[in-house]
Amino acid sequence: MPKGNPKYDKQEWIGRKFGRLTVNKILHERDSAGRSLLLWECECDCGNVIKAHPSRLVLGVQSSCTCIRKECGKDFFKHGKSRTRLFYIWASMRERCRNPNNSRYENYGGKGVKVCDEWSEYKPFEEWALNNGYREDLTIDRIDVDGDYCPANCRWADAKTQQRNKTTNHYVEIDGETKTLAEWCEIYGADYNVVHSRIKYYDWEPKRALETPSGGKGANGQTYDPSTRAKPVERKYHIERRYVDVDGEHLSLKAACRKLGLPYKAVHLRITRYGMTVEEAISRPFEHKEERQ
């Protein structure tokens, strides 16, 4: 097997462009020790044809032949910034947008997100960052989460801003105004986990979930509306000793649930928390959300 990542030995890479370099061929050559070596033959925009290591192109370490050195009048690649945090941000940004093997590619390059041509080189990106509020405690954030990485669509944001600008956020509309659930919880002074559970698992309306005070914690750690909490059930004997007749058989509750194809935990919860009799707990139809308990 050639030395190098076998994922780079696929025809799908041919025609891909990395900065000024376009992949023309996949080559299998030998290094100085006689070992098989995987390289890409690339054509630069200036017309030069070179051989390059695939990983250098995919990671953004190399994006042209030596033509940039001549244009800049210096060795551009040896900028001395490759170990800085800002360089890592730039390289990571390009990696998740351009490398299908990257673990985060599906949410970036896989969705069509690209890095603009202006930032195909590190120096322009560094200049933009330093002139637009870059700090060690901030990360790069796209204003339009469906847009590309470019000066007009990027900013430096803290972790809180980043989290509120994710496509996976839960947006809620109240009185004609839409915000993330986290923002509404801040406005109402409510606990996010409580409100989220009320909406997701108990189908509460968002405004009711936000405005209702917590009424204490139940067995599963979830808080409830005090007016809807069930009163404590006075039990004379343990639930495991309860029996029920099913088709002429005298069965334990667990055996009866197994025979009837009912969720035992949900039936148990109906009896212990909501005060139903065994017969009621078994005979009443189950809703989808109750079955998940």
Structure, briefly:
The protein is an alpha+beta fold and 293 residues long. The chain contains 12 helices and 10 strands.
| Strand composition percent | 15-25%
* Helix count, DSSP H or I runs of 4 or more residues: 12
Q: How does the overall form come out from the CA principal axes?
A: elongated
Please give the alpha-carbon distance between the first and last residues.
52 Å
Order of helix and strand elements from N to C terminus: EEEEHHHHEEHEEHHHEEHHHH
Cross-sheet strand order for the largest sheet:
1-2-3-4
Write down how many β-strands occur, each being a DSSP E stretch of 2 or more residues: 10
Number of domains: 4
The unreliable regions are: 72-77, 217-223, 232-240
Query: What's the main sheet like?
Result: 4 strands, antiparallel
Radius of gyration: 30 Å
Helix content: 25-40%
Structural class by sheet pairing and helices: alpha+beta
Mean pLDDT: 77
Task: Detail the topology: elements first, then pairings.
Blueprint: E1 17-18, E2 21-30, E3 36-44, E4 49-52, H1 54-58, H2 67-72, H3 85-98, H4 122-131, E5 139-142, E6 154-157, H5 159-163, E7 171-174, E8 177-180, H6 181-188, H7 192-202, H8 206-211, E9 243-246, E10 249-252, H9 253-260, H10 264-272, H11 278-283, H12 288-291
Q: How would you sum up this structure, described in words?
A:
The chain is of the alpha+beta class. It has 4 domains: 6-72, Thrombin, subunit H, CATH 2.40.10; 85-163, no CATH class; 171-228, no CATH class; 239-291, no CATH class. 31% of the residues lie in helices and 17% in strands. The chain has 12 helices and 10 strands. It has helices spanning 54-58, 67-72, 85-98, 122-131, 159-163, 181-188, 192-202, 206-211, 253-260, 264-272, 278-283, 288-291; strands at residues 17-18, 21-30, 36-44, 49-52, 139-142, 154-157, 171-174, 177-180, 243-246, 249-252. Strands 1-2-3-4 form a 4-stranded antiparallel β-sheet. It has a two-stranded antiparallel sheet with strand order 5-6. A hairpin with a 5-residue loop joins strand 2 and strand 3. Helix 3 (85-98) packs across helix 4. The two termini are 52 Å apart. 18% of the residues are buried. Mean pLDDT is 77; it is low at 72-77, 217-223 and 232-240.
